[in-house]
């Protein structure tokens, strides 16, 4: 194969991987289609996906298999996902979604770029060889940690907690076994690990069942915890009350509340009803991708000022359209905030003074900054 022919294939793959909407689209697809991955922070999913795509592209360019450094990263991913309680099938499913997105776009791009199908097939075969070695190392690392994890995490409370969070008829039995009321409603709280004060406060808030599940501190409670249970500067998401059978869905709502609270820089225990709009926005990565695509020309037009403009619009909206408060938060002059908000409206066509326009403006700026 001529070197320049191979370079054209590599250039095409690099263009596809570098498309602005690819990563948000993949993350949105993974969170929609792989339930066990959906509970993880989008930034976590995006970071690992980005690294895998970059490694695969480098391997294709050099026409080689994975290096030991790349395999070490894959081992780390396997260990991380195992400790988060994500099954290996879910990890592989997420990778498959990313692969499908890349090669689907690559086929379309090759057809319009005049690249022969045979060349793209050669690249796919090389990628499959690389991917097979990566999968093998990933499975091995995940299983080695998983065996130890299940052997050491067989505590009664954690086992019952997991059954509770699955919901369904088994959850009612689990609640009774844990000494929690089976009628009258239960609450689910989700927080990032590391806030020892919150964990102690929850354990003192009996009856309650607390444990670390999928990399998060999760509690099932018989009554609402105090708002200040979470330490200074930290947040916890809360949802409920609900019957034990419904706790699987309630857990997802509590996680959505946590993500929304963090996005809005709220602290303390935050009920999902208090951040319902933000929770809905955070759960629709597919719509965020559409919003980004629609306003990609605006981002380009803003150039080097894109990020400062997005920060100003977001701060201004989160301050209740108070220019002075937003300026103090950003350490700029109030006129700077006014000018950036006006510039945003000009290039996007979004009216941030309109109720729904403000919602779209906030969502777009949040997506830009992510």
Architecture overview:
- It is a single chain.
- The chain is α+β, with helices and mostly antiparallel strands and 370 residues long.
- It has 18 helices and five strands.
- Strands 2-3-1-4-5 form a five-stranded mixed beta sheet.
- α2 (22-33) packs antiparallel against α6 (88-113), α8 (156-166) packs antiparallel against α9 and α15 crosses α18 (355-369).
- The longest helix is centred in the middle third of the chain and has 36 residues, at 117-152.
- It starts with a helix and ends with a helix.
- The model is unreliable at 149-154 (pLDDT under 50).
Instruction: Name the average pLDDT.
Output: 84
Give the CA-based shape.
flat
Percent of residues in helices: 55-70%
Q: Trace the largest sheet across and list its strands.
A: 2-3-1-4-5
H and E string: HHHHHHHHHEHEEEHEHHHHHHH
Cα end-to-end separation = 41 Å
Binned strand content = 5-15%
Give short descriptive properties of this protein.
five-stranded mixed beta sheet, alpha+beta, 370 residues, 18 helices
Give the SSE layout.
Blueprint: H1 3-18, H2 22-33, H3 35-38, H4 42-62, H5 68-83, H6 88-113, H7 117-152, H8 156-166, H9 169-178, E1 186-191, H10 196-203, E2 208-213, E3 216-221, E4 235-242, H11 247-263, E5 268-271, H12 276-282, H13 285-294, H14 296-302, H15 306-318, H16 323-330, H17 334-348, H18 355-369
Parallel strand pairs: 4-5
Antiparallel strand pairs: 1-3, 1-4, 2-3
Helix pairs in contact: 1-4, 1-6, 2-4, 2-6, 2-13, 5-7, 6-7, 8-9, 11-12, 13-18, 14-17, 15-16, 15-17, 15-18, 16-17
